[in-house]
Amino acid sequence: GRRSERRRQTERRLGGDRLFSGDHLGDRLHRPAHDPGQVLLEGTNLSEGRGTTRPFLWWGAPWLKASALWEEFRTRSFPGACLRPVAFKPVFDKWEGKTCWGFEIRVTDPQTFRAVRTTLTLLREVCLRHPEFDFRPPPYEFEEKRRPIEIILGDARLLAFIEGKMEIEELDFCLREGLINYQNEVASLTLYEGGFFL
Fold first, then answer.
1. Can you give the pLDDT at residue 128?
2. 168 near 176, Cβ under 8 Å?
3. Spatial separation of the C-alpha atoms in residues 132 and 125, rounded to whole Å
4. Which of 151, 148, 150, 168 is nearest to 159 (CA)?
5. Which of the two residues, 105 and 1, has the higher pLDDT score?
6. Cα–Cα distance measured from residue 161 to residue 94, given in angstroms and rounded to the nearest whole number
7. What pLDDT shows up at residue 172?
8. 100 three-class SS
């Protein structure tokens, strides 16, 4: 029908009808897996899909050159996930009423999917290829001086990765170090024997 034709037109505009394949177990099941990574978009001028029926699953912007990104992304491996090109028009929040070109992240294996690493990798590609990309200025929540992305990331080294000043191996080290620190802190607060061990 009309919806299928519109989807085919969007796919053609984004560089072809071949999509990354992967099982889609449903938004409700996958949404929690996306959120830790996709929340980083709140610190940028990319839409995180608020104002649509797929917040944190869809992301993009009117200026995003999705065709070029699609060519780059389709050659990459995103463990536990695949990407699908989308076009959407938020009814509120960032880019309200404007058509945004972007992608949907589909989790294919929740056990191997790394939400933060995946979103940081996607943000890096957007940052390095799009002069329109920017980080949102303060204020954010309770903070008046620091940029929202700095608050959300919690570690300036991760910002260096997005800006192309750090390699993926260093990113993995930073993420692992942060996870170990978090797990140790949580383990010290448990009400029972045990805790998190790596």
1. 96
2. no
3. 13
4. 150
5. 105
6. 24
7. 78
8. strand
